UniProtKB/TrEMBL annotation:
<dbReference type="Pfam" id="PF12631">
    <property type="entry name" value="MnmE_helical"/>
</dbReference>
<comment type="function">
    <text>Exhibits a very high intrinsic GTPase hydrolysis rate. Involved in the addition of a carboxymethylaminomethyl (cmnm) group at the wobble position (U34) of certain tRNAs, forming tRNA-cmnm(5)s(2)U34.</text>
</comment>
<keyword id="KW-0819">tRNA processing</keyword>
<dbReference type="InterPro" id="IPR027417">
    <property type="entry name" value="P-loop_NTPase"/>
</dbReference>
<feature type="binding site">
    <location>
        <begin position="335"/>
        <end position="338"/>
    </location>
    <ligand>
        <name>GTP</name>
    </ligand>
</feature>
<dbReference type="GO" id="GO:0002098">
    <property type="term" value="P:tRNA wobble uridine modification"/>
</dbReference>
<feature type="binding site">
    <location>
        <position position="233"/>
    </location>
    <ligand>
        <name>Mg(2+)</name>
    </ligand>
</feature>
<dbReference type="InterPro" id="IPR025867">
    <property type="entry name" value="MnmE_helical"/>
</dbReference>
<dbReference type="GO" id="GO:0003924">
    <property type="term" value="F:GTPase activity"/>
</dbReference>
<keyword id="KW-0479">Metal-binding</keyword>
<dbReference type="InterPro" id="IPR018948">
    <property type="entry name" value="GTP-bd_TrmE_N"/>
</dbReference>
<dbReference type="InterPro" id="IPR004520">
    <property type="entry name" value="GTPase_MnmE"/>
</dbReference>
<dbReference type="GO" id="GO:0005829">
    <property type="term" value="C:cytosol"/>
</dbReference>
<comment type="similarity">
    <text>Belongs to the TRAFAC class TrmE-Era-EngA-EngB-Septin-like GTPase superfamily. TrmE GTPase family.</text>
</comment>
<keyword id="KW-0547">Nucleotide-binding</keyword>
<feature type="binding site">
    <location>
        <begin position="248"/>
        <end position="254"/>
    </location>
    <ligand>
        <name>GTP</name>
    </ligand>
</feature>
<dbReference type="InterPro" id="IPR027266">
    <property type="entry name" value="TrmE/GcvT-like"/>
</dbReference>
Length: 458
């Protein structure tokens, strides 16, 4: 545990609010605050206690009435002495407090510096530290859930354990190298092999979860395509109107509905290229048209909408073939269920396969089954296989992939009977990437680039 020089920053969002919190952390944080605080002697107060009093200028002028919370090392977020000053949420007061603190020898914190200290003091690993940023930025239930799972150690704990086992093996392999010419084998090759296979088995679902993880964080790009008059703009409006209704039902919310964004089961869907759908003269044509292809290119999920009453069996068959060829996950949606005869529906269902067509009526707002299917599409993709752990960060993906590749080389080498020095080389690469992932190996550059992306006060 280390106590660094004292730093301070506004921990709440800048701007006017009922209260604001200024956080001070580091060596002497409590004593320094005590020098400007009147009302109680903070230096004798136990950890995790709150105290009412005033902050004053050196000449005794009142800055504000405040509530000060004291956290003593090591039971604080940074594991240092921490004071949180809750003051009135005025920019002027905040500036006065920060200036007063800097005059007492406190430095203004850099972006992410509190979290960086927490990491350096072993509060959590790097993946967890990054999850702090994600958690704060999370604005949907799914991204919140994923950040929270990472913050709790999610996949990094498991990887750290496997890395330790690999380290033990590498030590044995390297010991063999010391014996040079002699033909010794300390590391049981069969055990090493099965360990590497196990590690790869853990890595794969995580690597695959990136596309979903990314979607959870940034929204799932979704496109609605279909022939003119299929009902695409009606569907778009039905989806978005419902969204607007939900948002305006939440009392006190001022958040505007973001154009063309939709939340289903806490997952964010971004409806792309909807401008054309708004104007019926410019509707997206059926697939096969170049523009539609380009739009499908940008999407993770394609909603193919057709008029159930008008579509012939032959047409549906061709459409399915084209969608399959495009290779994108798609949902086959039969619109105007209200106009479609049971017999017609039956014929089309038989062609597509049982339960494949999702029947809706966009005009009547009967679209729940489509929404359920969209949500299911994302959730079943991979979150289940990883116990909910999702990779949402490109840095993590890079290290996981590099580890996996190094292990694949090591396994191939092992099977081909390569010498211990070759084996050790690939294993070391794998260990380095795993170590950088969780932060057991770090460089200042890496830490600066990760924590520099946080905002001040975190
Ligand atoms: P787009 O060209 O694919 O955007 O299709 P529109 O949304 O403009 O719809 C074409 C026509 O179909 C409009 O007259 C809609 O009112 C109508 N329509 C859309 N959805 C339904 C539905 O579920 N049932 C019925 N009966 N008509 C619908």
């Amino acid at each position: 545990m280390q106590q660094f020089e004292p730093i301070a920053a506004l921990a709440t969002a800048p701007g006017i609010g009922a209260i604001a919190v200024v956080r001070v952390s580091g060596e002497g944080a409590i004593d320094i605050t005590n020098r400007i605080f009147k009302g109680k002697d903070l230096s004798t107060q136990p950890s995790h206690t709150a105290h009412f009093g005033t902050l004053r200028q050196p000449d005794g002028t009142l800055i504000d009435e405040v509530l000060v919370t004291v956290f003593r090392a090591p039971t604080s977020f940074t594991k240092e002495d921490v004071v949180e000053i809750s003051c009135h949420g005025s920019d002027y007061i905040i500036r006065q407090i920060l200036t007063r603190l800097t005059r007492e020898g406190v430095r203004l914190a850099r972006p992410g510096e509190f979290t960086q200290r927490a990491f350096l003091n072993g509060q959590f690993d790097l993946v967890q530290a990054e999850a702090v940023a994600d958690l704060i930025a999370a604005d949907s239930e799914a991204s919140h859930r994923s950040a929270l799972s990472q913050l709790r150690g999610g996949f990094s704990r498991k990887l750290k354990d496997l890395r330790q086992q690999l380290i033990d093996f590498v030590a044995l392999v390297e010991l063999e190298l010391d014996f040079g010419e002699e033909d010794v084998e300390f590391a049981r090759r069969d055990q090493l092999r099965s360990l590497m296979v196990d590690v790869r088995r853990v890595l794969h679902p995580l690597i695959e979860s990136f596309s979903v993880g990314n979607a959870v964080k940034n929204g799932v790009p979704t496109v609605i395509v279909g022939k003119p008059n299929a009902g695409k703009s009606t569907l778009l409006n039905a989806l978005l109107d419902e969204e607007k209704a939900i948002v305006s039902d939440i009392p006190g919310t001022t958040r505007d509905v973001i154009e063309d964004e939709l939340f289903i089961d806490g997952i964010r869907f971004r409806l792309i290229d909807t401008a054309g759908l708004r104007h019926t003269t410019d509707t997206i044509e059926a697939i096969g048209v170049e523009r539609t292809r380009q739009q499908m290119e940008k999407a993770s999920v394609v909603v193919y909408l057709f008029d159930g009453a008008e579509t012939t069996p032959g047409e549906l068959r061709r459409t399915i073939a084209e969608l399959e060829e495009a290779g994108k996950p798609y949902l086959l949606v039969g619109n105007k269920a209200d106009l479609t005869l049971d017999s017609g529906r039956q014929t089309l269902d038989d062609i597509a396969g049982k339960g494949k067509i999702i029947w809706i009526s966009a005009r009547d707002q009967r679209i729940d089954e489509l929404k359920a299917a969209l949500s299911l599409r994302v959730r079943t993709d991979s979150a289940v296989q990883t116990d909910g752990a999702l990779i949402t960060n490109a840095r993590h993906l890079e290290h996981l992939t590099a580890t996996d590749e190094a292990l694949a080389r090591a396994i191939n080498g092992l099977d081909a009977g390569v010498t211990a020095d070759w084996l050790a080389m690939d294993l070391r690469v794998a260990l380095r990437h795993l170590g950088e992932l969780t932060g057991e190996i770090t460089t200042d550059d890496l830490l600066d680039s990760i924590f520099g992306r946080f905002c001040i006060g975190k």
